[in-house]
Amino acid sequence: MAQLLTRKDLAERWQVNEATIDNWRKEGILTPCKGIPAPRFSEQHIAELEGIKLERFSPLERRRLERELEELQAENTKLKGIISQILAASSQIISVKEGVKN
């Protein structure tokens, strides 16, 4: 689990006083973690405010997920083609049956 930062931690990090941190929290600029008695801030939230994008996955995990996505997209395309063929064949059968009735 990522480390949670206190008001004091943030004040030191950003070189402001703790009252400024409280004001930013009241203004909605800072969002504390929920379910914790004292205000604590997630490192990810703070990093995003600072303009740093934290990666949720390692490069290996990201590549595995990208490969899985590519495979699923290819399978999806293949299945759409099969469904199109089935619909085309079934529409011909339906039209032949309707022609026999008339």
How does this model look, in words?
The protein is built from four helices and two strands. It has 102 residues and is mainly alpha-helical. A two-stranded antiparallel sheet has the order 1-2. α1 crosses α2. The radius of gyration is 28 Å and the shape is elongated. The mean pLDDT is 87.
Secondary-structure blueprint:
Blueprint: E1 4-5, H1 7-14, H2 18-26, E2 41-42, H3 43-49, H4 59-101
Helix pairs in contact: 1-2
- Report the portion of residues in β strands: under 5%
- Tally the structural domains: 2
Please count the helical segments. 4
End-to-end separation in angstroms reads: 72 Å
Major sheet, described briefly?
2 strands, antiparallel
Q: H/E series, N to C?
A: EHHEHH
Count all strands and give the number: 2
Low-confidence stretches: none
Summarize the structure.
InterPro entries: DNA-bd_dom_put_sf (IPR009061). It contains four helices and two strands, in the order E-H-H-E-H-H.
